[in-house]
Amino acid sequence: xxxxxxxxxxxxxxAPVHLAPLDSQVRVRPVMDEAVRDVCRARTDATDDxxxxxxxxxAFLLRNGFNYTGKSKWTTAHMR
Length: 80
Prior knowledge:
The protein is built from three helices and no strands. The protein has helices spanning 8-19, 31-63, 76-79. It has 80 residues and is mostly helical. The protein has a domain at 29-67.
């Protein structure tokens, strides 16, 4: 008897997962690998924060009537 909510083809697809050995190997990452991952995450977070801050500032300036008419924003010409 099949449990409700699953088709026979789903059972065939799920079966290998249940038959997998439970004593598979797990790799513990070295400290240096974790440190590199932390630096990468911090850099990504900082870039995302900078992008959001630029968008907030640009929206604020547009709301208050300051419209930049140059070609691209956030260049040295835009900063002046």
